[in-house]
Specification:
The chain is an alpha/beta fold. It folds into 3 domains: 7-59 and 225-258; 61-208; 260-308, no CATH class. Helix content is 38%, strand content 18%. The chain is built from 8 helices and 8 strands. It has helices spanning 9-12, 17-58, 66-69, 179-184, 228-256, 261-272, 280-285, 295-307, and strands spanning 64-65, 85-92, 98-100, 110-119, 124-133, 152-160, 173-174, 197-208. It has a 5-stranded mixed β-barrel. β1, α3 and β2 (85-92) form a beta-alpha-beta unit. The two termini are 17 Å apart. 20% of the residues are buried.
Length: 308
């Protein structure tokens, strides 16, 4: 008895409709997550570009009197005036000096020196005078240069107060430049400046007269846009790849699942094989990957069947 022809491998590997639906839903879910990540990166890119535009517009602008931007105590710095240079005339309050910790400059650990500045009109503005490196025990700097005495004219870059920090700090130190926290950390507390502060601080650019010992100046603001735009494109490509991969898989498997007349003839020939061996010799010599018969081989097989 002649053995039944084996079922071609392409016919045995058919996925069910449920499997195709599951794969499709997985591809759609993956693509949706990639699109969400792309949108998130795009928003980060646009926000960063807005910040860069603000820096480029304000940082190099001519300095204006501080009272023009901060006209009265209690006001906060308008968002459009961040990074704007401003001038103040008055005197430092060196006894209320406070150190800002955990804020490296150019990858060098150290402290920022924060000194309240009392303007001629009575307004008190915290000034970040610059940077000093860590001391021998790393808990404080070895020395803090004193500000100039007497009446001083300073040019500062205006910045909004940072959110108050909930982390603790040693006496005379803070974790954020928040005017209330900075003044409260001083030896005399914040009572002396009640009702005279503003919601901003200044990063020192110049002093006249200059200090006898200068601090390390603060670097200009960073205008690097980062990699957000490239990440946006990458996530879009991943989303397209998830959908395209599903479509390509479906096309490859559905096209390869059709059983042609040539496949049946070849399967029957392999099953027949050598009568003395029951086809085992032919199957043993069969390569792992079956070659599709040519048109001439199909015609020969059909003619042989007709003669039989």
């Amino acid at each position: 008895m002649t053995a039944a022809p084996p079922v071609p491998a392409t016919a045995r590997s058919q996925r069910t409709r449920r499997q195709w639906v599951t794969l499709g839903l997985g591809a759609v879910a993956l693509a949706a997550l990639c699109v969400l990540a792309a949108v998130w990166q795009w928003h980060r890119y646009t926000d960063r570009m807005a910040q860069i535009h603000l820096v480029e517009s304000n940082y190099s602008a001519p300095a204006v009197p501080a009272e023009q931007v901060l006209p009265a105590p209690g006001v906060t710095l308008p968002a459009d005036d961040e990074w704007r240079p401003a001038t103040l005339t008055g005197q430092y309050v060196p006894e209320a000096t406070v150190l800002l910790r955990n804020r490296p400059v150019n990858s060098t650990p150290g402290f920022h020196v924060l000194v309240p500045f009392e303007a001629d009109d009575g307004t008190v503005l915290v000034v970040d005078r610059g940077f000093v490196p860590l001391g021998e025990d790393a808990s404080s700097p070895d020395a803090v240069p004193a500000p100039p005495d007497g009446r001083v004219t300073v040019v500062v870059t205006l910045r909004p107060d940072e959110p108050a920090s909930g982390r603790g700090a040693p006496p005379g130190q803070v974790q954020a430049i928040d005017t209330r926290q900075v003044l409260a950390a001083g030896p005399g507390g914040a009572g002396w400046a009640d009702g005279r502060t503003v919601g901003a601080y200044g990063q020192l650019r110049s002093e006249d007269p200059a200090s006898a010992q200068a601090l390390v100046p603060l670097p200009p603001p960073d205008t690097d846009p980062g990699s957000h735009l490239s990440y946006t494109f990458q996530w879009c490509v991943f989303a397209l790849g998830a959908v395209s991969g599903y479509v390509l898989l479906w096309r490859r498997e559905t096209r390869g699942s059709t059983v042609t007349a040539g496949d049946l003839l070849l399967a029957e020939a392999e099953a027949a094989g050598d009568p003395g061996t029951g086809g085992s010799a032919v199957r043993a010599r069969r390569p792992e990957r079956r070659r599709r018969p040519t048109d001439e081989e199909l015609e020969d097989a059909l003619l042989d069947d007709g003669r039989d």
